[in-house]
Amino acid sequence: MPSSTSNKRTRPVFKTAALDDQEKFQPLPQPTGKYPYHLNIRDVLPELPANKMVFHMAGDTGGLVSPVYKHRIANEMISQCNVVASEEDRPQFFFHLGDVVYNFGQEEEYEPQFFEPYRNYPNPIFAIPGNHDADIDPFDENEPNSLDAFVKVFCDTSSRPIPFSGDSGRKSNIQPNVYYTLKNPLANIIALYGNVPRFGTITPVQKEWFINELKAADTERSGKALIVCLHHSAYSADTNHGSSLPMQLFLNAAFNEAGVWPDVVFSGHVHNYQRFSKLYPNGKTIPFIVAGAGGYADLHRIAQPGDPAFPDQSKLLDDVYLEKYCDETHGFLKVTIEKTAADFTLKGDYYTADDSGKGLPAVIYDSFTVKLGEAG
Predict the structure, then answer these.
(1) Contact call for residues 100 and 151 (beta carbons, < 8 A)
(2) pLDDT tens per residue across span 196-245
(3) To the nearest 10°, the Cα dihedral for 272, 262, 336, 80?
(4) Are 35 and 20 in contact (CB under 8 A)?
(5) Would the pLDDT of 1 be above 50?
(6) CA 131, CA 304: separation in Å to the nearest integer?
(7) Cα–Cα distance between 57 and 97 in angstroms, integer?
(8) pLDDT-derived band of residue 85, with 50, 70 and 90 as boundaries?
(9) Would residue 114 be called left, alpha or beta, if left means φ above 0 and alpha means ψ between -120 and 50 degrees?
(10) I want to staple 99 with a disulfide (CB 3.0 to 4.6 A). Which of 130, 283, 308, 338 is the partner?
């Protein structure tokens, strides 16, 4: 089984031994586009259908140790793009949840960790930076600024060849900033940037922008899903990171100030899969999905109940239920948003890859559905 069946954990945890590393915070790069940092997906995918959107999602795909895992995940996603029962079920893009490369976001890390594995991925790739993408090697003689390479790959002013992409042929994307909203016919995807610290840090300027984006997206709620993506996981039950208190406090404050709650929150950072249901005081239940098992070799295990190093008895963790998890196998999401005359839904299918090396195809491990079109 691809999860610890003996572990009956149902709540997220905090990690008592977590270190405060706020000194790792790095200044943000200058935006490459205009405020409020919107990217219309049809500027990249002009033929995107109006009533059905299918895309991949995963985080933490990089790494140099045991590269077989990241190649296996990439190959499974490539296969889904090339072999589908019908054209309308074909994934149209990949949204990356951060940590494209490890351990630092240097240009030379992108070719082996990103461009080579996704050489044959036929679709555009959008991304938010992870902490490793933004971190700086203090011994790098080139003395790059934080996210220099990430911006060249994902936040260019026009799509063009990338000098350090090897012979992959992939061109730069045109995201307007390291935090931005990806606007498309069926969803507003608000992408946040949590910087380098282990549990994430959101600047006041970005918080103000986020609140405004929530309010703007809510005016389109009847016709579009409202999706929030951030690298650092607000809720987690793993033993490496645990839940991020800064991200919990940030999201709760922003949702309350905006008076708007999203349909779903996606994150990476934790190297496994977890699906939580968070019940808010207004009665709205939001799925919080962790999908950070995208290829980095080491996976993060779920804490055993009762372990004092990973307490779960906090009012901040109340009303958050761990529905399902997978901590022994790498995997990725395929998300489908579809609008029909009778229904408007977001469906997530989490696929686990065959980490045994037997060459078996990826299989659906978990599925969830969110009913859309209701004000937040």
Answers:
(1) no
(2) 999 999 999 999 999 999 999 999 999 999 999 999 999 999 999 999 99
(3) -30
(4) no
(5) no
(6) 27
(7) 7
(8) low
(9) alpha
(10) 130
Tokens matching residue 329: 């196998």
94 pLDDT more than 50:
yes
Helices (H), 60-106: 68-82
Pseudo-torsion of CA 159, 160, 161, 164, nearest 10°? -70
Question: Which residues on neighbouring strands pair with residue 369, listed in sequence order?
Answer: 347
| CB half-sphere exposure, 374, CA atoms < 13 A | 13
Cα(125)–Cα(266) distance, rounded to whole angstroms?
16
Alpha carbon dihedral 193, 198, 199, 202, in 10-degree steps, equals -30
Tokens of 123: 């679709």
- In 3D space, the residue among 202, 240, 229 whose CA is nearest the CA of residue 97 turns out to be 229
> Which residues are CB-contacts of 25 (< 8 A; sequence separation ≥ 6)?
195, 196, 197, 201
Query: Exposed (0-12), middle (13-18) or buried (19+): which is 121, by Cβ within 10 Å?
Result: buried
Which pLDDT value is given to residue 258? 98
Position 233, amino acid: S
Whether the ω angle into residue 36 lies within 30 degrees of 0, i.e. cis, is yes
In sequence order, the 6+-apart residues with CB closer than 8 A to the CB of 173 are 44, 124, 125, 126, 127, 153, 154, 155, 156, 159
Q: Is the CA virtual torsion 231, 263, 33, 62 positive or negative? A: positive
Is 336 a residue whose pLDDT tops 90? yes
Specify the pTM. 0.97
d(CA 287, CA 224) in angstroms, rounded, equals 17
Q: What is the pLDDT of residues 264-300, one digit of tens each?
A: 999 999 999 999 999 999 999 999 999 999 999 999 9
Residues near 310 by Cβ (< 8 Å), separated by ≥ 6?
A: 13, 14, 15, 16, 237, 239, 242, 303, 304
Phi–psi pair at 264, nearest 5 degrees:
-165, 150
Burial 208-241 (b: 16+ CB within 10 A, else e): ebbbebbebbbeebeebbbbbbbbbbbbbbbbbb
Tokens 């929150």 -> residue: 265
pLDDT digits (tens, 9 = 90+) for 120-149: 999 999 999 999 999 999 999 999 999 999
